[in-house]
Each structure stands twice: as structure tokens, then as C-alpha cells.
Write a structure and sequence with these properties.
single chain; about 270 residues; Immunoglobulin-like; seven-stranded mixed beta sheet; about 50% strand
């Protein structure tokens, strides 16, 4: 196996770099271990959360689409990261576990044929000594263990690679045996991004037959807050964008999609 990390080397890595997550596939390599981004006084903090949240024990619903959020914080004004989600800890056999989807404006998805996908920063990000990088990940349909590896870098942004510090973290994601049956319920393979929602929401779903499709938002007591769509659509994958209106206030909602006597509910959060 050849790990082509050094072919992507840049003295500042301002646009991110692949195969530096600290994973077994990367030989444990991070940006701090290839001769740059060292000497920082403090270690940054990194947290990884999912929306909707994983079940206790970092358990996922097979086939479900999550928004993963990598947050760096500490004493550094800017942050970068590199992340992989692998199907094995064997450095000679590891490939992607699950599928990476849409990424946030400060991220990029780096795909190399026959090698794991990397999600990394598009540019150093940060405000108030913290930064969050968000992207979509669809868990594997066939229940299996997923190994997440992430290297986060805190940068003092002094136009030099000195005075920076890295932090690696890893997670073992397991299929939730109590949620496997939910696959059949999510007949539309509904994907919502971003979640939490601020100004605009993107929906992706699949219709196995043509028909009238209704999409609505409900508050937690079951009252309809807004109707987003009610029209006839053809068979196949559908992509829809909806702008948030002023009458949709910040809070927790259920999005309901219905077609041909079938329906699915998914919780979403509307932020300020």
C-alpha cells in the first residue's frame, strides 16, 4: 500500500491535506508528525457530535443520514481538520465505511480511487477561538462497525507553521440493534441538510412509485407549523431546497414526508 500524503504537502496546508488523520491506514500520521505545525503552547479541544444524535454508546441506525459536526476550541484563532471513517483497522484493507455526502462551506471531500475518502478543511476557520466543520455521513445499510479517526489542528495564524498544535481523536461507531428495524420505516431514504437549519434546508428522498408527495413541519404537540410541498412527483430520487420563512421560529420540529399512504417523521432543529 502506498500512502500518498507527501504528494499533497504544502508548507501551511491552508487548503487541507489528506491521509493525516492518525488512522492505521495513515500509519498514525498527522500534520504535527510530518515536520510542521508544532510548538504550540496548549493542546486544542476537539469534539465530534451527530445530528440527530447517535444512540448511547455511539450507536447508529443503519442506512440513516447524519450531519457530523467537528468542533475545535481552545486558545487558537483558527482550526483545520482531517477525518476518515473506515471499515477496518487493518492498514492494508481499510476503505470507507458508509458514504460521505454534502459538506459545509468550510470543508471539502477528497476522493482518491481505491483509497479512503478524506473530509478536511477548505480553509483555516475560526471565530472566538472556536470553529465547527459539518458534513453529511450516511451509515452503512449492512450493520457493521465504523472506525472514525480525526486529527484537529489549532493554528495561531501567524503565516508560519510554528506555534501550532494538533489533537487526534477516534470513535468506534456501532450499529444499534434496536434501530435496525427503522430501515424499513425510512422508506423514502430521507436526508436533511443542514440540521440544525438556519436559513435554508435541503431535502433528498427517493420515491419507489410516482404519486402525490406532501412535506410538512409539525411542532412537538402535533400541530402543523408549515406545509413545504404538496404536488405530484415521478419515481426516483428527488432533491428539493426550501427557504425558511419568518413564521418558522427557532425550535424543535418534526418534518413529515408522505406519499401513497406511507409517511416518515424526522426531527429537525431550527436555529437563530
Amino acid at each position: 500500500m502506498i500512502i500518498p500524503a507527501f504528494t499533497f504537502f504544502d508548507s501551511l496546508h491552508s487548503a487541507g491535506i489528506v491521509f493525516q488523520t492518525g488512522s492505521p491506514y495513515d500509519g498514525g500520521s498527522t500534520c504535527s508528525q510530518i515536520g510542521c505545525h508544532t510548538g504550540g503552547a496548549t493542546i486544542p479541544t476537539v469534539s465530534i457530535t451527530a445530528t440527530p444524535a447517535f444512540a448511547p454508546g455511539n450507536k447508529y441506525t443503519p442506512g440513516f443520514t447524519y450531519t457530523l459536526n467537528v468542533t475545535g476550541s481552545g486558545s487558537y484563532p483558527k482550526y483545520g481538520f482531517d477525518l476518515e471513517i473506515l471499515n477496518s483497522t487493518d492498514p492494508f484493507a481499510a476503505l470507507d465505511q458508509g458514504v460521505f455526502g454534502s459538506v459545509g462551506s468550510n470543508c471539502q471531500k477528497m476522493v482518491n480511487a481505491g483509497q479512503p475518502t478524506n473530509v478536511c478543511h477548505l480553509a483555516p476557520s475560526g471565530s472566538g477561538n472556536t470553529a465547527t466543520f459539518s458534513f453529511q455521513w450516511t451509515a452503512p445499510v449492512t450493520p457493521d462497525t465504523a472506525f472514525l479517526y480525526c486529527s484537529l489542528l489549532g493554528a495561531n495564524f501567524n503565516a508560519s507553521n510554528a506555534g501550532d498544535k494538533g489533537k487526534t481523536t477516534s470513535m468506534v461507531l456501532l450499529p444499534d440493534p434496536n434501530a435496525v428495524a427503522a430501515l424499513d420505516a425510512n422508506i423514502f431514504n430521507l436526508s436533511i441538510f443542514p440540521n440544525p437549519v438556519k436559513d435554508k434546508i435541503h431535502l433528498s428522498y427517493f420515491l419507489d412509485q410516482p404519486g402525490i408527495v406532501s412535506i410538512s413541519l409539525y411542532i412537538l404537540d402535533g400541530k402543523k407549523a408549515a406545509e413545504l410541498l404538496n404536488c405530484s412527483q415521478g419515481q426516483g430520487k428527488q432533491e428539493k431546497d426550501f427557504n425558511r420563512t419568518e413564521d418558522i421560529l427557532p425550535g424543535v420540529y418534526f418534518l413529515k414526508i408522505s406519499s401513497r399512504d406511507k409517511s416518515v417523521l424526522q426531527k429537525i432543529i431550527v436555529s437563530n
